[in-house]
């Protein structure tokens, strides 16, 4: 049986994988099998951590808002602030509130005073 000559498709696929893994260290960027495994692992981690990043940032914003709100009043907390915001139908999300809390605390105090009246 004569030898079959393979086309360029497999080589093109391996080149694409190598380009993806070119910044990996050691055999993870040189050997085809480990490169393929590391690419799959990297994509799984990226997919998982996109959701985790959203979660972590939301926790950070909540912590910042709560810290600033509790400084001013003794019996006022983040949950009461959010509840009052919803009652007054003010559409401010947590990211914006956290930015206001860091950059301009007085503005956040004014918002909280207005909605508690």
Automatic annotation (TrEMBL):
It is found in: Plastid, Chloroplast. Pfam families: Ribosomal_L20. The keyword Cytoplasm does not apply. InterPro entries: Ribosomal_bL20, RIBOSOMAL_L20_CS, Ribosomal_protein_bL20_C. It comes from the Eukaryota. One of its GO terms (molecular function) is rRNA binding. GO terms for biological process: ribosomal large subunit assembly; translation. Binds directly to 23S ribosomal RNA and is necessary for the in vitro assembly process of the 50S ribosomal subunit. It is not involved in the protein synthesizing functions of that subunit. This is Large ribosomal subunit protein bL20c. The gene is rpl20.
């Amino acid at each position: 049986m004569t030898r079959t000559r393979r086309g360029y498709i497999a080589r093109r696929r391996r080149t694409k994988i190598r380009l993806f893994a070119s910044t990996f260290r050691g055999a993870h960027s040189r050997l085809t099998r480990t490169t393929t495994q590391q690419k799959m692992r990297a994509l799984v981690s990226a997919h998982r951590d996109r959701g985790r990043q959203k979660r972590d940032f939301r926790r950070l914003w909540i912590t910042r808002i709560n810290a600033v709100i509790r400084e001013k009043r003794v019996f006022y907390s983040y949950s009461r602030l959010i509840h009052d915001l919803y009652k007054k139908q003010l559409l401010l999300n947590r990211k914006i509130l956290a930015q206001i809390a860091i950059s301009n605390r007085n503005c956040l105090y004014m918002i909280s005073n207005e909605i508690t009246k």
